[in-house]
Amino acid sequence: MPVITLPYRYLERLVGLDRETIVDRLPMFGSDIERREEDHVDVEFFANRPDLFSTEGAARALRGFLGLEEGPVRYGTTPSGIAFSIDPGLTGIRPYLGSAVIRGLALDEEAIVSLMGLQESLHWAVGRGRKKVAIGLHDLAHIMPPFQYLASPRDRSFVPLDFEEEMTMEAMLEAHPKGRAFAHLVRDAPRFPLIVDANDQVLSFPPIINGELTRVSTATTDVLLDCTGIDRRAVETATTILCAALAEAGGRIESVEIDGVVSPSLEPSFREVSVDECNRLLGLGLDAPAMAALLRRMRFGAEPVGAERIRVEVPCYRSDIMHDWDVFEDVAIAYGYGRFEAVPSRTATIAEERPESRLKRSVREALCGLGHLETMPFVLTSEAVLFSQMRREPDPRALRVLHPISEEQAVARTSLLPLLMELLEYNRFRELPQRLFAVGETITGFETGLGTAAVSCHGAADFSEAYGVADALCRELGLAYTAVESNDPAFIEGRRGALVVDGVTVGVFGEVHPEVLGAFGLDHPVAAVELDLSAQLQ
Question: I want to staple 507 with a disulfide (CB 3.0 to 4.6 A). Which of 144, 353, 373, 499 is the partner?
């Protein structure tokens, strides 16, 4: 979860209360204070609340929670007269764009730090490391509309942010820190995304780096926002949250036409929720007016519709409200967790550790003792990661999501090794060696199994290391195994083995195939072990 720095002086100015009062109430707002410093407080917010990832967003919510304001903040837009066009050649590369113009800003250093922090937090929480969304903020004084979002030749040159000399976009992937960090997002594209103005000046090379020409400073008053990506909903979410934060900072939001479509849309959404259902879930006895008042305190619009239902106006920046229960959670926060009565459980039981928990603990003890660090990969992933990048045939029994929000979350994991390879990709610029493992549920069809995997990435990783880890793990778990030749295409032929227990193949180990390493952008060999533990629970 992201940790957000809230400068006291800026926070006090936006909220209208002293720092001690604010900090004292912050934990009751569903946040966790990481540390308190002389001039700021670092606060951890849940990843599902990206609207709180800035001082401006947190202050807006706190003004309601602390009783200074109530109801939604409505942000209007006026036409800017500025247009954007999208090159059809970006289809299949990064086809989506959201934009807005924000005028009348008076940014001090704290506001700029808050804005940059929001940008990076959204890159992580909404953009999945800039893959789904990349954000650019530009000083409008130095550029001329209309703007174009192009599929550019890879040898186009400009001066990137924090540099003084021009370089080609191809060179930036090797020479610029941001280029090295995010090159994997565009390296294989035939052309690179590029934003230019009417004078063919470069604003941005998304998702890598902005141009030095449009750097935002304390002298900036008018800003052009661009959000580009591969997921339309994520692009719209990031655009909306940034516009709302900049409006809280004192800016006026103006819309931009993108191929004739107006951006952004800051209109609220509406839903009706049940008072009885809320009371049943929370164990409260609220009537409709009382529940509506609590929701207004959480910056919703809320009016009773009869005695049993409430019409809720959801602000444009609340991307986390996807179910009525999300609304009820805010009712509980506004009511106050400290006010809930502590009631003994009606069921008395004697606790006992579940067999799968004991098995997981044994795996953790064994692999931690071998020098591996535990990770917890997501359950949902993509078919590309599970199968094609691993050189494995797709499993027809894989459980697919009917309506996935993105390709990256379209299928439940059938094994853990591909997800560890993806983690190595995310950390490929970190120091070596890297030794990771995971243990947890795998899903095949409608059956849930238990598996574990371990990887070791460094210059000397080889078959012997993988065999040693596999042998030690099996011995610690009491598995009498036989090692035989494997045909798993994810590993190098002649440097791979299978683990057989009671005549059944339960695992594989060896050196990962170079094509798999290339698919995950890795430059060093990887020794890996994968083990299906489902049979040990029967």
Answer: 499
